[in-house]
Amino acid sequence: MTEKLYEQIASQLRGQIARGVYPPGERLPGIRKLKTGLGVSISTVLSALALLEAEGLIEAQSRSGFYVKPVTLAHITLPTASQPDLIPQPVTSQQLALNLVKASHHVDILQLSTAVPDECFLPTDAIGRSVAHVSRRQKEHSSYYEFPPGHIELRRQIAKRLVMAGCEARPDDVVITAGCQEAIILALQAVGAPGDVVAVESPTFYGLLQAINYLGMKALEIPTDPVEGLNLGALEMALEQWQIKACVAVSNFSNPLGYCMSDGRKAALVDLLERYQVPLIEDDIYGDLGFSGDRPVAFKAFDTQDQVLYCSSFSKTVAPGLRVGWVFSHQYREKIEFLKYVNNLSAPTLSQRALAHYLQHANHDRFLRRVRSQYQRQVHRMLDLITHYFPTGTRVSQPKGGFVIWVELPIQVNALELYRLALEARISIAPGQIFSARQKYEHFIRLNSAVQWSTRVEAALKQLGQLASTLAAS
Questions:
Q1: Thinking of the domain 124-361, which architecture would CATH place it in?
Q2: How far is residue 367's CA from residue 360's CA, in Å, rounded to a whole number?
Q3: Got the DSSP string for 282-329?
Q4: What is the pLDDT of residues 138-184, one digit of tens each?
């Protein structure tokens, strides 16, 4: 039977997808470009695309075009759930984390380590216009401090956005900080003191461990599942055994595991900590970056005793360099305001006003809709290459949002050794040891997928896989 023209076109595109000309997550050329390039009619192109879509190879995205469908994740094995000892520990050997950050200054090193999005994923033009507007129209921005709690219009905009996370917030209960890191440090200072025990996820973001170390506190690592999140049974055992002064957890799309706790488990966690009268410090910095498009609710939405201190920032969604975050809490607001003042007087005035203008006048939600799809494609594209190039036995997280990937390598692979070999090849990765107070996760690494995609990135992932395979074999 003679193959129809649209079937021939579909076959040609199918072959290009199979050869990697259009990798997972890649946008196909526009319909008119395909029409001109292939020398066929628009109806033929549409019929070919419809056939590929029916086969599940591509998918249409509203007002954006057709994209190669991401790799099917069903065959990917998740990392094993963590099993740390339920013993408080001082945080040690965080110098490696600082070295990791310093490496990000080298432009010749491919940055797959730090969880900082490339500027191509940020609204740089829009925020630039807001900075310029404030510089021209509000020239007093550099002549005085925006003392705590911070710029009122920015706090109003944040309070409005918190509604989408299921929270009823008053602007007066929002305190502006220099990023989410400072927000968490102030929250820890507000509820605890040096020597206190803080329960954390395991693995957890190394910046939190550095904050605990800086404050002279001890970290108690709680087992964490790559899908369900914090092990509530283990946490309750720890609460019965130790005098825990605070629990710090990521509610949505954790770093590094990428999971999003279900609403039921969020409510159960808040209820558990309320029964033991332990404050919950919530890190929701990735909450706006879910792949499903629905903004998941925060722990704070289930807070009935005002024991949740909600922390976040605009570092992952708007502009890391502006260094603007916040803490939302009524009970601890005055103490956090005081701590913010005595630590460094205020967050930058220009940054606060520029962000307020941006949130008022730019369509931030439209930007978020676009960038969520971009991150989903980036994550799936990287997962596809990891499954192709990394050694047999590799396990990988399946993030539901954000842009970091947690990789469990064969047990023979030492992450620090892989980190050193990769750095010699001008590739920076985050070794698993820095995500634990006790330097666990010796054969794990974290990768950042929010990089501008290029043949260099693909070659780097292939090289990483080869290095890991060599270590696994030895």
A1: 3-Layer(aba) Sandwich (3.40)
A2: 14
A3: EE-TTTT-BTTSS-PPPGGGG-SSS-EEEEEESTTTT-GGG--EEEE-
A4: 776 666 788 999 999 999 999 999 999 999 999 999 999 999 999 99
